[in-house]
Task: inverse folding
């Protein structure tokens, strides 16, 4: 483990579609981050409570269960204000207005290069 | 001198004077005087002939008092009583002697004529002509009044016909039709309105119509209507109208003002068209398009993930290209099957058979056995992809690479009472000795990680030397979650 990767925060990936979650995890791991992943908002909150090294929430919007990605982002912003929020979704125009301020949006499929760059920028601000 | 009925054919009785003076010379004298004065004359000799002329609407009658036979008074009376209301035939009666001191009988005979003037004899030419002319003038006025009356009656009839026609049209169309006074007071609805709403006739006159609208639409409809009344702009709005069934249906309301020559609004004519079914179809189409968009995006994201993974784990571009192509065509086939089942659920036997079609040779080396359970669209897609990876791997490195190699695919539900599990097994036999691969490519990750995720279950991949064995164990609920 290099000195740089030590400084990087861990990222929690929340995505209900396993194949796409796999891809997101690979993409972010390849960029040097430690990654946790969850298939639902409820599972994500349990992980947030369990691991205090998570610095960035990377979530989908449209997910089954009691909370969608927007509600999850709002909840995380309230409970863990320092955690940066990145949202990736196939439908971003409408939901953008409802998300917490300072959230970063990406369309799906993932623009890998841009996402990795943004995550690194956020990480450098956090540390 | 000419007589009787042959005159009728030449002289129009409606503009002629009948002369009845059967005795003496008075008749002939009167005829000459009147004819010379340019007045058409029909000479007649009996009361009965006069009655015919009365029925023919003779313009006026010149008659001698002695011709008014007492026996015929009733005949004359009856003929006159049959005259239409506008008609009051003027009689000029040449008296027996002076015009004063008449007997009661003589008075009664005169009264029977209803509209009579008495002229004394001997005849005085100017007086006779003046009296007859004035009678003709009076008669002309009656005809004028008759024409006005007939015209009025015609107008009235036309109005009634027009009204009946309007109601027939207004009640035959599918639309509800209504009218209001210039201030917006509703004073007419066609039958369709009452059929639709089921309210008693007249109960929505005035401003009561607003109660028939959905509470959420009342303010908006009221405001739009007020705006039209104030500005004279035509009215158009969609709102929900209470149906007699108790529910609300979407309706398109429209109205136009009718203006007089000065531009003043006289009435508003409006209609309501039931657009509920169209509206629902539109909403459904929007939902469908949104769902479609979501699925397309999701599919593209899955393709993106598959391509990224394949490229990340491939040794060279030639292999990667072949893998990507076969994986995309397999995903396309899986989508075809889902479209056939309208994207809800399909059957696991169908899914399994379809996924293996590209991998079957002439000889059948697959044994497939299991209950034909329903399976959700996501799980069907994931199972298709996993079977594709398993079959591709078996053809390259496993049992299907050997002539005698076999694959046995079975699934079943176990009997755990509270949470029954679904078990799916892929067992290869007759292949070369199996060795655990050095690295895990997209295929094994698809099988080990992604598939388990889609079924909310666990996967065991056993690289047994006698043949690869793959096993999925998932809650039965997970098949359609």
Result:
């Amino acid at each position: 483990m290099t000195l740089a990767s030590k400084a990087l925060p861990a990222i929690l990936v929340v995505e209900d579609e396993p194949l796409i979650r796999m891809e997101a995890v690979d993409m972010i791991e390849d960029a040097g981050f430690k990654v946790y992943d969850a298939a639902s908002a409820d599972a994500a909150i349990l992980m947030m409570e369990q691991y205090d090294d998570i610095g960035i929430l990377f979530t989908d919007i449209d997910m089954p269960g009691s909370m969608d990605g927007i509600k999850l982002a709002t909840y995380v912003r309230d409970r863990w204000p320092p955690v940066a929020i990145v949202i990736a979704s196939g439908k971003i125009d409408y939901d953008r207005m409802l998300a917490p301020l300072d959230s970063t949006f990406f369309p799906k499929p993932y623009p890998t290069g841009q996402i990795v760059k943004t995550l690194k920028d956020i990480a450098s601000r956090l540390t | 001198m000419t007589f009787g009925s042959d005159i009728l054919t030449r002289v129009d009785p409606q503009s002629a004077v009948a002369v009845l003076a059967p005795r003496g010379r008075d008749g002939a004298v009167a005829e000459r005087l009147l004819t010379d004065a340019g007045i058409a004359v029909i000479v007649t000799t009996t009361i009965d002939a006069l009655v015919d002329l009365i029925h023919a609407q003779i313009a006026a009658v010149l008659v001698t008092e002695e011709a008014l036979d007492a026996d015929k008074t009733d005949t004359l009376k009856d003929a006159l009583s049959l005259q239409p209301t506008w008609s009051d035939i003027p009689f000029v009666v040449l008296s027996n002697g002076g015009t004063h001191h008449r007997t009661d009988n003589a008075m009664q005979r005169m009264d029977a004529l209803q509209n009579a003037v008495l002229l004394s004899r001997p005849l005085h030419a100017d007086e006779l002509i003046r009296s007859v002319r004035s009678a003709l003038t009076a008669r002309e006025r009656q005809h004028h009044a008759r024409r006005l009356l007939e015209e009025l009656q015609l107008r009235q009839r036309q109005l009634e016909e027009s009204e009946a026609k309007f109601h027939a049209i207004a009640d035959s169309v599918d639309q509800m039709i209504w009218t209001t006074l210039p201030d917006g007071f509703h004073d007419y609805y066609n039958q369709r309105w009452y059929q639709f709403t089921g309210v008693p006739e007249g109960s929505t006159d005035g401003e009561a119509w607003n109660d028939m609208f959905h509470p959420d639409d009342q303010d908006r409809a009221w405001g739009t209507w007020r705006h039209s009344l104030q500005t004279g702009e035509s009215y158009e709005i969609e709102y929900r109208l209470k149906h007699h069934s108790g529910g609300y249906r979407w309706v398109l309301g429209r109205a136009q003002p009718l203006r007089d020559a000065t531009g003043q609004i006289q009435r508003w004519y409006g209609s309501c068209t039931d657009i509920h079914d169209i509206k629902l179809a539109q909403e459904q189409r929007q939902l469908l398009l949104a769902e479609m968009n979501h699925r397309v995006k999701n599919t593209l994201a899955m393709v993106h993930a598959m391509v990224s993974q394949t490229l990340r784990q491939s040794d060279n571009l030639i292999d990667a290209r072949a893998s990507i192509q076969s994986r995309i065509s397999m995903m396309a086939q899986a989508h075809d099957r889902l479209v056939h089942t309208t994207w809800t659920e399909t059957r696991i036997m169908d899914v399994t058979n379809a996924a293996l079609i590209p991998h079957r040779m002439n000889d059948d080396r697959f044994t497939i056995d299991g209950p034909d359970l329903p399976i959700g669209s996501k799980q069907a897609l994931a199972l298709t992809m996993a079977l594709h990876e398993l079959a591709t791997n078996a053809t390259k490195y496993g049992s299907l690479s050997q002539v005698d190699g076999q694959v046995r695919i079975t699934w079943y539900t176990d009997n755990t009472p509270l949470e029954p599990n679904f078990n799916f097994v892929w067992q290869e036999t007759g292949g070369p000795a199996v060795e655990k691969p050095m690295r895990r490519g997209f295929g094994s990750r698809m099988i080990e990680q992604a598939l388990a995720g889609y079924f909310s279950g666990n996967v065991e991949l056993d690289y047994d030397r006698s043949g690869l064995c793959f096993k999925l164990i998932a809650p039965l609920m997970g098949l359609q979650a």
Q: What stands out?
A: Chain B touches chain A at residues 293-294, 297-298, 300-306, 308-309, 312, 378, 382, 385, 445-446, 449-454 (CB under 8 Å).
